[in-house]
Every structure is written in structure tokens, then in C-alpha cells.
Amino acid sequence: MSESCSNQTYATAFEGAALIYARNFERLISIAHAVEERPFSAGIWQHFPQRRKWYPTTDEFYVLQGDPQGVLDAIAGSNAGPDQVIDVIGLDPVQDDAAYRAAGYERDSVEILMDRPITPADAHIADDPRVVGALTDAQIDRLAEVWNQGRTANGYRPILPAHNTTLGLVQRYVELDGVPAAYGRAIAIDGDALLADVNAFPGFRRQGLGRAVMLALHSGLARLGANRVVLTSTAMGLPLYEQLGYRRLAEDWIYATPRREAPAGPDAGA
Fold this sequence. Notes:
The protein has an eleven-stranded mixed β-sheet with strand order 1-2-3-4-11-5-10-9-8-7-6, sandwiched between helices. The chain has seven helices and eleven strands. By secondary structure, the protein is α+β, with helices and mostly antiparallel strands. The protein has helices spanning about 10, 15-30, 70-75, 95-100, 135-150, 210-225, 240-245, and strands at about 35-40, 45, 60-65, 85-90, 105-115, 130, 170-175, 180-190, 190-200, 230-235, 245-255. The relative contact order is 0.20. It has two domains: about 1-115 and about 250-255, no CATH class; about 115-245, Gcn5-related N-acetyltransferase (GNAT) (Aminopeptidase).
């Protein structure tokens, strides 16, 4: 796991939030998908033997803004597969943009790294009767169908019965009239949590369900003993997260090698 990060500059960046982001994501995705951490001097390297989620990605690198050529040299010196993602985290990653583009990477998206303390008060948030923590097998199947949106590549299934029982995982789900309406989850390691996959599904947006899921996740994390939660947000999610007490720490500029279709079959890894 990424708590062994050899790059101390990365490990301590933004009060450790960059490390929590990568480390906890590795733990979260490993519930459903194989992932291996490999030594990487410039930050954190995660290798996906069966590729990442539904995508062709073989390898993801988490690095800090400021030394793009050093990062590119470190990747070139690795045995990474052909389909890569680089998360460039910093206060102003635009300064590195030209170097990554010149090397053939495309900017896929920009997210905001944020954090918030988890306090005892969060544990006393009133339960919303619409929100549940454990899903039945039938609910898992319905949620997976909505979430997958017809995607089947790499055999990835984003929700499994194992998510009900994984140590340190808190999940919250809303289903209305038998239809998945909203979901979110967080995973904690040693008191530090990553919150991810919060979504109100089409047809159920702007009804306060995302906020209800977030509050329930905060409550669950407090009861679990977490003291801090980290997330990344798109521009759309910023108003809600800031209303809930999150602060902006850095930007995450996400680069990818040009997209190709994910190869079929379970042995598609590099």
C-alpha cells in the first residue's frame, strides 16, 4: 500500500492529503479490481493488471507539480504499460501543462483536492430514513446496472457484496420506488478517509440527495473513528462541498495517453 511512499515530498504534500488520495483510492479499488503498487521515485505508481475500471489504463502515476521532465524520465525508466494516467497535483499545474502535452499526453480533466475535519458533532447528525448503509443483493444488481451504463470492459463491476463488509468502508445508498437514486462511499485508513463516487443519478438530481448522502457518510466516518476526510471535486460539486465545510488544497490535472478501446478479455493487462 502507498503508506510506504518513498518520495517524502509527495507523502507530506498538502498536509498529507495527496498521499491519502492515492493510498486510499488503491485500497478502495482493490475491493473490485486488482491493483499493485510499484516503486516510483517521483511519487506513487499504481499498476492495474486487468486495467483500471472500464478503461484501457494500465498504470496511474500520482506526482506533484514542478518537475514534469523528472516525472516523464521516471515513467520512461519504468516498465509501465502503454495506457497511462498521470495525476499532477499542485497549486498551479498549468505551469507543467506544455511539457506533458509535448510528451504526447492529453489533459483529461481538472479536479480540486479538498479536505475537511471529521468531528464528534458529525456522529450526531440525524439519520435520513431514505439513506441505508448495507445493500441487498437485489439493490447491488440494480445499482451496478445504473452505474455501469452499459459498460462491460475488463469485467469491472463497481459495486459488490464485498463492499458491505470491507473493513474501514462506509457507504450510503438511496433507492426510491425500486430505482437507484444516489450513492456515495468513503474508505478510512488509520483515521484518514477518502470520500469518492458520490452521485445522484439522472432523474434524481437537485433533490438534496447528494447532500443527504454526504452527511450520512460524515456521520458514518465519525462513528468509525476517522478524523479527516479528503476528496476531489469537479467544478460542479464545489458549491456543495464548500457548504459542507471542505477547503480547497490544490488542483489535480489529470493527463492520459490518447484513448484507445480497452482490449477484451480478462488477460488484457500489460
